[in-house]
UniProtKB/TrEMBL annotation:
<dbReference type="Pfam" id="PF02518">
    <property type="entry name" value="HATPase_c"/>
</dbReference>
<keyword id="KW-0067">ATP-binding</keyword>
<dbReference type="InterPro" id="IPR050482">
    <property type="entry name" value="Sensor_HK_TwoCompSys"/>
</dbReference>
<protein>
    <recommendedName>
        <fullName>histidine kinase</fullName>
        <ecNumber>2.7.13.3</ecNumber>
    </recommendedName>
</protein>
<keyword id="KW-0547">Nucleotide-binding</keyword>
<keyword id="KW-0597">Phosphoprotein</keyword>
<dbReference type="GO" id="GO:0005524">
    <property type="term" value="F:ATP binding"/>
</dbReference>
<keyword id="KW-0418">Kinase</keyword>
<dbReference type="Pfam" id="PF07730">
    <property type="entry name" value="HisKA_3"/>
</dbReference>
<dbReference type="GO" id="GO:0000155">
    <property type="term" value="F:phosphorelay sensor kinase activity"/>
</dbReference>
<feature type="domain" description="Signal transduction histidine kinase subgroup 3 dimerisation and phosphoacceptor">
    <location>
        <begin position="223"/>
        <end position="286"/>
    </location>
</feature>
<dbReference type="InterPro" id="IPR036890">
    <property type="entry name" value="HATPase_C_sf"/>
</dbReference>
<feature type="transmembrane region" description="Helical">
    <location>
        <begin position="61"/>
        <end position="79"/>
    </location>
</feature>
<feature type="transmembrane region" description="Helical">
    <location>
        <begin position="107"/>
        <end position="129"/>
    </location>
</feature>
<dbReference type="GO" id="GO:0046983">
    <property type="term" value="F:protein dimerization activity"/>
</dbReference>
<keyword id="KW-1133">Transmembrane helix</keyword>
<dbReference type="InterPro" id="IPR011712">
    <property type="entry name" value="Sig_transdc_His_kin_sub3_dim/P"/>
</dbReference>
């Protein structure tokens, strides 16, 4: 047999975690600082981006170190015992200049050409030329650098050895010089094309994501418009009839108690129509929640018209709360009072709101349920607590609900505040 608390608020599985933010789109206000309704978010993606940036910088350092190491190995491999000191000096300068190849690519090519022409730094000159082609593409600097690298491979130092070579060797050196100068340019252009292709693919993915979001917004706007029409045509019509019948009943009956009940019904119907008009206006907007929403300052009127013995306590400044949090507090209290009327009859209820510098706490606590014969309970779909939990999750708040020690029920919500409240 179900317990009193289970009968009061339904199956406990209704309060289970539904996965956090289940509402999407314009219901969540994303600020430029990366926050949702004033609460910082996206900490994990930021950390991931920082990790990728550090990895990219480390990869660049590793590539630069590898370039210098390859150039140094090339000089060591072509070591000649009869070489002159200036041959080694020019080669060392050419290899050392590779450290600056990303910032000053053309200057580095000019520094490596003497080491290639009169030294042993062929790979250093080719690496510098490839970097220049990757950054400048087929510019004038690239053509000049390619000509210098080709000349360094074609012409031999000292000149007397170059002039002593047969013409067939000159043709062979000229062809090989084209390969030595052309291969770095081709590799540099290929690397640049790969970067451009990656950027275009990323841009295409982003545009597809934007298109998907726009399509989702359009579908949601159509659904909101359909819901608005149905609510306006069906619900508003029925509630209006209830208000009219209550007014007629108030005039027709002579019993004071019946007049009071009819007046209460008419007042609640009128209030429901007002809130329904606001909801319909929200559904008809295309960019989210543009209509004015109830705030914490309206809680006294809400508690006074709850139809049950209820008290309200507000501590701390609540006048400058963010609009999403203030509206969430009002809706939380409204739903909690509705649950008390449905499941606990006329049980006395206490509403406590306390604002602190960094958070806002709301607690609604009711006494044990009144017996059905004294105050009849109302049917319920059991979705109220789930909705409160989802509303709190949208604002990064915490939600608690459960039976209290005295046999009643307690609902508590805590909302973090993004800024200091003035004391």
């Amino acid at each position: 047999m179900p317990s009193v608390m289970t009968a009061q608020y339904g199956d406990e599985q209704r309060v289970a975690d539904t996965g956090g933010r289940v509402l999407a789109g314009n219901a969540v206000e994303r600020l430029p600082s990366g926050g949702v309704n004033g609460v910082p978010t996206e900490r994990v993606p930021r950390a991931a981006r920082g990790w990728r940036e550090r990895l990219f910088r480390h990869r660049q350092l590793a590539v630069d170190f590898a370039a210098v190491a390859v150039g140094a190995f090339d000089v060591w491999f072509w070591f000649a015992p009869d070489a002159k000191p200036y041959n080694y000096a020019l080669s060392i300068i050419a290899v050392s200049a590779l450290v600056l190849r990303r910032r000053f690519p053309f200057l580095v090519v000019l520094l490596t050409v003497p080491g290639f022409f009169a030294g042993m730094a062929q790979l250093a000159a080719m690496i510098a030329l490839g970097t220049l082609a990757r950054q400048k593409l087929l510019s004038t600097q690239t053509y000049i650098a390619a000509g210098l690298v080709w000349l360094s491979r074609f012409f031999l130092w000292p000149p007397d050895e170059f002039l002593a070579l047969p013409w067939t060797t000159h043709i062979h050196d000229a062809i090989y010089g084209c390969i030595v100068a052309g291969m770095p340019i081709a590799i540099g252009l290929l690397a640049h094309a790969r970067e451009e292709l990656s950027a275009r693919i990323a841009e295409l993915a982003a545009s597809r994501e934007r298109e998907r979001l726009l399509h989702a917004h359009a579908v949601r706007a159509d659904e909101r418009a359909r819901l608005a029409r149905e609510m306006h045509d069906v619900v508003s019509h029925q509630v209006s009839l209830i208000a009219m019948q209550a007014g007629a009943l108030r005039v027709a009956v002579a019993d004071p108690d019946a007049k009071q009940v009819a007046g209460t019904i008419r007042m609640l119907s009128t209030r429901t129509l007002d809130e329904l008009r606001q909801l319909v206006s929200v559904l008809r907007t295309t960019d989210g929640d543009d209509s004015p929403q109830p705030r914490v300052e309206e809680l006294p009127q809400l508690v006074a018209g709850a139809g049950i013995p209820a008290s309200l306590t507000v501590l701390g400044p609540v006048g400058d709360l963010p609009a999403p949090i203030s509206g969430a507090v009002y809706r939380t209290v409204q739903e909690a009072l509705t649950n008390v009327r449905k499941h606990a009859g006329c049980a006395a209820t206490a509403v406590h709101v306390q604002a602190e510098p960094d958070e806002l706490r709301v607690e609604i606590r009711n006494d044990p349920p009144v017996l059905p014969r004294e105050c009849p309970m109302l049917p319920s779909g059991g979705h109220g607590l789930v909705g409160l939990q989802e509303r709190a999750a949208l604002l990064d708040g915490t939600f608690e609900a459960g039976p209290s020690d005295d046999g009643g029920f307690r609902v508590a919500v805590t909302f973090p505040l993004a800024r200091q409240l003035d004391g």
